[in-house]
Amino acid sequence: MKEMLVGDGSKAGSSGSSGLSPAAPTDNGEAARRRKRLVNLTRPWVLLAPSLIVLAGLLLWPLIQVGKLSLQDYKVKFGGGEATFTGFDHYKDLLKSDLLWKTVLPNTVFFAIACVGLTVALGTAVALLLNRLGPTWKLICSVSILAAWAMPAVTGTYVWIWLFSPEDGMVSQMADSMGLIDAETTNWFTERLPFYGIATLNVVHHGFPFVAITVLAGLLTIPKELYEAGELDGANAWQRFWKITVPTIKPVFLVVTILSTIWDFKVFTQVFLMPGGSGSNPDVYNLGVYSYIEAFAKNDYGAGAAAAVLLTLLLLVITIVYIRTLFRQGEEDL
Amino acid sequence: MTTRRTPLASRIGLPLAVAALLVFTLFPVYWMVSTAFDPKALTRGSDLLPSGVSFEHFDFVFDRGNFGQYLLNSAIVGIATILAAAVLSLFAAIAVARFKFKFRTSVLIMVLIVQMVPLEALVIPLFIQMRDYEMLNSLLGLSIVYIALSLPFAIWTLRGFVAAVPKEVEEAAYIDGASWFRMFWSVLLPLVGPGLVATSIFAFITAWNEFVFAYTFMKGSDKYTAAVGIFQFFGENTTSWGPVMASSTLVTVPVMIFFVLVHRRLGSGLAAGAVKG
């Protein structure tokens, strides 16, 4: 295939060999081969260059900048910024602050754990359900799952806020009519726990379809004979799931778990848009929101950058685990 | 011997589970759309059916909220994003799928790592960068950021589509005397076309849905994208949920239609690890 990529090279060789002089063809062939090698060497980089330039300029360079920024005090001035080097002060302040250890990190971590656990559990249950349905209902359920998946984070968040909105929201009204709460005085969004409960519902609703569809694809690869053998040995459905399904498609579970972890650690929009989530209620900060507020609401770009670097490092660790998992599986033929 | 022991449980359990699934997935969508059409949206409480059907919230959103402009802005940014992202990612995908070269694996891993970076870490330096270049509040500046955001997923997905084209087809073109570019134009491009369309639609959805950058960069209200424009219907103390849900419906419905249409083609790419919808 490599040889075929340079059509004109082989043509030059063949026209050379038809000549009378014995020395010319070897020279020609040599030159053609060298050119072919050069084209083979440069063409992939020529094709890659535009993308790499864009990625380097807009993703890699900003990452370096955010690292640099986290070591500075940056003041926005008219027509440019003014930076003073401060060393690791922002990191020291950040790591010493009560807000980080008592609010921001627990919010981020426990929220991510709850979301990942529920997303993977629900997604797996739905995949098992889909696997048992006939074609018509499977199609109906698949389309409804896709609808949940396709719901943009922004509008999905607004719908959940509306459902739980104090006084007028549907859930508040229903809970009120059942005598559980007083809709006039209950605000779900002011306390940490109900706030993140609603955010979890939102994120799981948006995230489980990916798990369901990926796990379903995995289920389809499991040979039926394994289940028949299990049944003959007297294993019930619960045992068959844990002893046959889980071990056989363990790689699939690993991948969806790690990817969900990466996504749920950096949830921003779904928290930021909720009442109090954009800065007025420090109790509900997560790491992403905290970084954004420090930078853009308090104009402390250095401190915001330090928090952003912390989040990036956390995600980088998870990403490395993810890539190693992919490689060990050997599924991705890189 | 292998008599099914659970006919009753599955006869009741299965429909129950399906019903629960349909309610959980579709109820928020239903509530959004039905509130958008409900003339008495604010006071509907827990009434499952809207009190009537009217377009007044949509009229309000377009006449008073300038939402047509925001939808147009979103469309412009989205189209600019897919045009650039499609061309760039196709070239890059051909490079990594069709050529063996040094650092190929490193390039692929870098692409994978780069898309895991949290947007909140990028928004601070990019904001400062764009401000220095006076590209804030410009649809072009926003499009450039979105091109970068959608590239990793597009490269990763298109790589699969390019690799799926049999090499023999290409070789046949060379034997017929085609140059590389002729082969690309007449053979590879038509065969990768469907994948390219699906990837482009996904890039469009990424740009259409994005919030953080649009919210941070676009400070002039005539430059809002639709996802940011909804925000203005939130009042100080009360929120007019009719217009909020009407504009949310306008943002959501096209995405859902596109997503259901293209997801099958993207299946493997979505699983390979990328952007959430």
CATH class assignment of the largest domain in chain B: Mainly Alpha
Question: Beta-sheet strand percentage of chain B?
Answer: under 5%
Rg of chain B (C-alpha, Å) = 23 Å
Q: How many angstroms separate the termini of chain A?
A: 18 Å
Shape of chain B: globular
Keywords (chain B): Cell membrane, Membrane, Transmembrane, Transmembrane helix, Transport
Membrane topology (chain B): Multi-pass membrane protein
Family (chain B): Belongs to the binding-protein-dependent transport system permease family.
Organism (chain B): Streptomyces silvensis
Protein architecture, described:
The complex is a heterodimer of chains A (334) and B (277). By secondary structure, chain A is mostly helical. In chain A, 74% of the residues lie in helices and 4% in strands. Chain A has two domains: 3-69, no CATH class; 90-329, MetI-like fold (Orthogonal Bundle), CATH 1.10.3720.10. A two-stranded antiparallel sheet of chain A has the order 1-2. Mean pLDDT of chain A is 85; it is low at 1-24. With 277 residues, chain B is an all-alpha fold. Helix content of chain B is 73%, strand content 0%. Chain B has eleven helices and no strands. The longest helix of chain B has 32 residues, at 67-98. The relative contact order of chain B is 0.14. Chain B: This is Sugar ABC transporter permease. Chain B: It is found in: Cell membrane. Chain B: It is a multi-pass membrane protein. Chain B: Belongs to the binding-protein-dependent transport system permease family.
